[in-house]
Design a protein that fits this description.
The chain starts with a strand and ends with a helix. Helix 3 crosses helix 4. The chain is globular. The chain has a 6-stranded mixed sheet. With 133 residues, the protein is α/β, with parallel strands linked by helices.
């Protein structure tokens, strides 16, 4: 059975929510943002599982881990996705579920994920600009 995963990323942890093709909501899983914990969660998913991740300042490493485990990451445009979810209340569970729903429906507003080499160069440039300021 195909699953769609929504991931609400925070500084210290990430919330994952799964949704089946039939729209059945799975268990909400909180995973500490440690590579070994994220890897352990991702290994439990069927290969090729689509995973929607919000654009945050720390999405790079998570997308790397998702790709490394053989899944398909989608980088959601957070502002547009929130508007499309149409919710006034904001919780980790609702955000993760909303991303999974948008991904399942094919309406997730996602952006291009540059290859790792390009991401590294972008990060180097951002770091240099920050240090120069």
């Amino acid at each position: 059975m195909k699953q769609y995963i929504g991931c609400d990323v925070h500084k210290k942890y990430s919330m994952f929510c799964s949704l089946s093709e039939e729209g059945e909501v799975g268990k909400l899983v909180r995973v500490e943002n440690k590579k070994e914990d994220i890897k352990a969660y991702l290994k439990r998913l069927p290969k090729g599982t689509p995973i929607a991740v919000e654009t945050t300042s720390s999405w790079y490493w998570l997308v790397d881990e998702i790709e490394r485990e053989g899944h398909k990451p989608f980088l959601a445009q957070a502002g547009k996705a929130k508007k499309m979810m149409g919710r006034l209340d904001k919780t980790d569970k609702l955000d993760a579920l909303g991303l999974a729903i948008l991904l399942r429906n094919g309406t997730l507003p996602y952006t291009w994920i540059p290859p790792k080499e390009v991401r590294d160069k972008r990060e180097l440039t951002r770091t240099r600009m920050t240090l120069a300021r």
